[in-house]
Specification:
Length: 208
């Protein structure tokens, strides 16, 4: 769950309610089609936050490996503990694995952060981190927006406007490096004919 939020930017309720039936490790993708919503002590399955929150999220190889190991461990738990073992979150709250309710997940995360000795962050900050990583990797903002389930790229731009200038500069540098430029000779000045050598002259072999 932490991995999906931190690397693929799922919302808390989406990660809690993600069923295996909507997670395809063969095609390396998952479909966000529901979420768990908590109101006080009541927990219920709900549609995603917005229409754009219905989405297909691509999974990288590392995330697929994490989910495969998690599924295997769940199978071992079921064999050992029967119905009390951990299981995938489903569309029915009554069948949700203990401890995977949104409020409980937040409590566990806060305790883990405190125990780690690292600066305090919120669970939602993992989602921000996923977006920042994608932008820093040069991923097009439309793809980042679609992955996060934003209804418009302007929302993504507004939230991550502090990151975008750096990304823009990095993209400009990377683009410029794709074009090889013939640099002037050391100590030469632009327009100095004495330093200019025709290409043909450079390639001409000296006479014997």
């Amino acid at each position: 769950m932490w991995h999906l939020i931190a690397f693929r930017g799922l919302r808390r309720g989406e990660a809690c309610g993600q069923p295996w039936s909507e997670t395809n490790l063969d095609t390396r993708s998952l479909t966000v089609s529901s979420q768990l919503v908590q109101d006080g002590w009541e927990i219920e399955a709900s549609d995603p936050k917005t229409d754009s929150s219905y989405r297909v999220v691509a999974l990288d190889d590392d995330t697929v490996d994490v989910l495969k190991r998690y599924r295997e461990r769940q199978g071992q738990d079921r064999e050992k503990w029967g119905t009390a073992g951990s299981r995938p979150a489903t569309s029915s709250p009554r069948k949700t694995a203990p401890g995977s309710t949104p409020g409980k997940v937040t409590d566990i995360f806060e305790r883990l952060v405190a125990a780690s000795g690292l600066p305090p962050i919120r669970l939602h900050d993992l989602r921000h981190g996923a977006a920042t990583l994608m932008l820093a990797a040069g991923i097009d903002i439309k793809i980042v927006s679609d992955t996060l389930g934003h209804s418009d790229t302007r929302i993504t731009r507004d939230i991550y406007q502090s990151v975008l200038p750096h990304v823009g500069r990095s993209a400009a540098e990377a683009t410029a490096k794709l074009v090889p430029l013939q640099r002037k000779a050391k100590g030469g000045k632009p327009g100095n004919k004495a330093n200019a050598q025709p290409v043909e002259a450079k390639r001409r072999k000296p006479k014997n």
